[in-house]
Amino acid sequence: MSEALLTVDGLQAWYGRAHILDGIALTVGRGEVVALMGRNGAGKTTTLKAIMGLVERRAATLRLDGCDLSALPTHRIARLGVGYVPEDRRIFADLTVEENLEVGRQPPRPGAPVWTPEKLFALFPNLAEMRGRRGTRMSGGEQQMLTLARTLMGNPSLLLLDEPSEGLAPLIVRQMADAVRRLKAEGLSVLLSEQSLSFASAVADRACVIETGRLRWTGTMTELMADDGVRAAYLAV
Amino acid sequence: MSFLLVQALSGLATAATLFLVSSGLTIVFGVTRIVNFAHGSFYMVGAYAGWSLIERFGGTPAGFWGSVAAAALAMGVLGAAMEIGLLRRLYRSPELFQLLGTFGVVLVVQDLTAWAWGPEDLLGRRASGLKGSIDILDQPFPLYDLVLIGLGPLVLGLLWLLFNRTRWGTLVRAATQDREMTSALGVDPARLFTGVLFLGCALAGLGGALQVPREAVTLQMDVAIVVEAFVVVVVGGMGSLTGAFLASLLIGQLQAFGILVFPQITLVIVFLFMAVVLVLRPHGLLGRAEEMPPTAPATVTVPLSRGRHAGVWALALLAVMAAAPLVAGDYALILLTEVVILALFAASLHLLIGLGGLVSFGHAAWFGLGAYGSALLVKHMDAPMPLALAGAPVLAGLGALVAGWFCVRRSGLYFAMLTLAFAQIVWSIAFQWYAVTGGDNGILGVWPSAWAAGKAAYYWLTLALCGGALWLLRRAAFAPFGYALRAGRDSGLRAESVGIDVRRFQWMAFVLAGAAAGLAGGLYAFAKGSVFPTLLAVPQSVDALVMVLMGGIQTVAGPLAGAAVFHLLESEVMSMTDWWRLVLGLIIVALVLVFPKGIVGFLSGLRSSFGRRRA
Ligand SMILES: Nc1ncnc2c1ncn2[C@@H]1O[C@H](COP(=O)(O)OP(=O)(O)OP(=O)(O)O)[C@@H](O)[C@H]1O
Ligand SMILES: [Mg+2]
């Protein structure tokens, strides 16, 4: 097997003095969708932020496509092709839909799908109808679409998706799952954090289960669905 | 009628300059969340640089406008350099450090400017091609001012285009809302911020250079304009360009007509206007709630430590100090008297900052009010010293009672701005009301009663009064009052939910601190024998902040040590050089750079990185 796109090993992270992550290890292969699963407060968001360099962190290995990320500032990591979609969306409310996309725009990157506003409007038809609208006047689902589209404008090769289905109506959740499958088909690799087993099983190839900042289990999505014990221990509410 | 029209037009011309300067300030604030005290310095240096260029090249219209543009660009470059050298290290610091750090730059620039251009006021040439005036309803009006009036909206329009029609402007607006998210999208925030500082400072420099044909270029124009620009930005809503434009227009008119109606107190009108706007519209005319900067919790979240055997130490210190006249000469006693007075001044500010988390940028108001209270009682009512001294904390406390009602309604930067505004109100009264305060001649002949006239006697009196006041402040810090204040500081909402009326406690603290500073001021007046408006001015407030900062915010004893070190440094080291502003400014900048998170933050940072290495 060729080297994975993202390799993480021995990842530690802190908020101030609170030690949150302790030794997370995971890989995301090219074109693979990996689900990061765990209960509230398990450390899913922190893992994604740590990869992005948004929290204080240290790692034995943190590589994207052979590049060491561990000493880079956030914007350099993004320019290497890591797209981050935060769970709290954080669209720029004062900017219009088109301006939000403009902020995300980066030059095309070899080996990663190239996105234009037109292509994204085709993927998310809702957004096409509100190009000139400001973020303050959008529903939660529309905002979620816009965050994802904005990140795609950076032409990433790896997408970090934090709880894409959280707080969305069932219809929108289905659209979201479709979108993720489309992205995978375009050749993107995805690491997504998720609490909903049904969403994860609909899109992911593999799963990593974490609890209190440690990796507890890793395997294919099919194995996870078959393993009642793991699900009961780390995922059941 | 025509006279009023011309007055209104000249108000518009003033507004244009004001807008140029405050637009830069508000843009820089919007993105970096730093209130750049040094903004006025770029205006001033822009004017000086513009003056030099216009003297040489200003003979033709092209030369004049080229000179103005070159001065503006040069200020932009200096602003970018300041971002890289200083501001970049302060983005995560508490606002106290940001304000102080940029004020350090103000001091440094003042001395460098005086060194480069000399202390005299400079009168520039008039703008080539625009020297005449035109008649408006039979009243002459300078052509140049007419051009300025047009320039305001023009610059607003250009800035609008820049921010709404270019990628750079879109990125800046995005970073204004969410810096972290913008960098997660691959934008280098550092470069963006350097660019923003370039733009903001170039606008300040433009405003300064454009003033050359209109008024004398002086070394005082930096603080004067930056305080006005603060008012504009706060009134307009921090970070809002259109708001700054509106506020400039309003304040320009207020000044143009205020000078007709109340020539003595135009400054007061402007600051009162700001206070009223802030009470009616807390976020300014066009500001929004989320535009309010978060108060940096890192200021002082460390609990005050009582210190072991503090009482014993304090008594021992008092005994040693009381014995000082046995060995010290007159000069040393004068110095010691001033140290003791300043210690009370610093401690009173520390009560607000350390306990309340309220960073006051105008604490000199209460010190000076106390000093003037005593001096006025002596001068106009022939009051004996004890009565005049008693009047000092009363007047200061009353002033703080009124100002505090406004100030504690806001926190963080707005609190700092409001306290600064009130200090400027009090300062401008002392400065402009000649009949009563003597203006900048001050009040002389404020001498102690015969029984306290000896240096030793006055020193003992000071020691006794300040010692008593310090003891009271300390009691307050560890009384339920002090705990309530700290609860409000650390979590205002939580404190409110358990039934603590945070605002009322903060108001009480404001009055208490004001009265204590007032007592210090009264004692200072008698120690010096005179009072001057400088006692109420911004640098005096900054001195107090530096003392608190030097001593460390975490302990009650900190400000005492800070006052001693600072005053000895000031009177011993700085008297040896003419460039004391430069020295003080560099010390301040060094302080905030070495301890960007505060001395406590620095220590706990050391501790936690040490702990992590072991783990
Ligand atoms: N800003 C912060 N400061 C301190 N601790 C934090 C902060 N954010 C999160 N934590 C703590 O870090 C731990 C992991 O949080 P994280 O947000 O990564 O969890 P999560 O798995 O994403 O949870 P959720 O499913 O609720 O989003 C939690 O215990 C949380 O309390
Ligand atoms: Mg989360």
TrEMBL record, chain A:
A GO BP annotation: L-amino acid transport
Check the record and name the InterPro entries matching this protein: AAA+_ATPase, ABC_transporter-like_ATP-bd, ABC_transporter-like_CS, BCAA_Transport_ATP-bd_LivF, P-loop_NTPase
Cite the SMART domains for this sequence.
AAA
Signal sequence, renumbered to the chain:
none
For the ABC transporter domain, which residue ranges apply? 6-237
- Spell out the Gene3D superfamilies in the cross-references: P-loop containing nucleotide triphosphate hydrolases (3.40.50.300)
**Which keywords has UniProt assigned to this entry?**
Amino-acid transport, ATP-binding, Nucleotide-binding, Transport
Question: Does the record carry ATP-binding as a key word?
Answer: yes
Which GO terms fall under molecular function for this chain's record?
Answer: ATP binding; ATP hydrolysis activity; branched-chain amino acid transmembrane transporter activity
Q: Give the top-rank taxon of the lineage listed in the UniProt record for this protein.
A: Bacteria
Q: Which family does it belong to?
A: Belongs to the ABC transporter superfamily.
PANTHER family named among the record's database cross-references: ABC TRANSPORTER ATP-BINDING PROTEIN (PTHR43820:SF2), HIGH-AFFINITY BRANCHED-CHAIN AMINO ACID TRANSPORT ATP-BINDING PROTEIN LIVF (PTHR43820)
Protein name as annotated: ABC transporter ATP-binding protein
**UniProt source species:** Azospirillum oryzae
From TrEMBL, chain B:
Keywords per UniProt: Amino-acid transport, Cell membrane, Membrane, Transmembrane, Transmembrane helix, Transport
List where in the cell it is found.
Answer: Cell membrane
Q: Does the keyword Transport feature in the UniProt annotation?
A: yes
MF terms in GO: branched-chain amino acid transmembrane transporter activity
Keyword ATP-binding among record annotations:
no
Transmembrane residue ranges: 62-84, 96-117, 143-163, 192-212, 224-250, 257-280, 310-328, 340-367, 387-408, 415-436, 456-473, 507-527, 547-569, 581-603
Q: Name one Pfam family in it.
A: BPD_transp_2
Write down the membrane topology. Answer: Multi-pass membrane protein
Q: Which GO terms describe its biological process?
A: amino acid transport
Annotated Gene Ontology cellular components are: plasma membrane
Give the matching InterPro entries: ABC_transp_permease, BCAA_transport_permease, LivM-like
What's this protein's family per the entry? Belongs to the binding-protein-dependent transport system permease family. LivHM subfamily.
What PANTHER family does the record point to? ABC TRANSPORTER ATP-BINDING PROTEIN, BRANCHED-CHAIN AMINO ACID TRANSPORT SYSTEM PERMEASE PROTEIN LIVH
Can you name this protein?
ABC transporter permease
Q: Which organism is it from?
A: Azospirillum oryzae
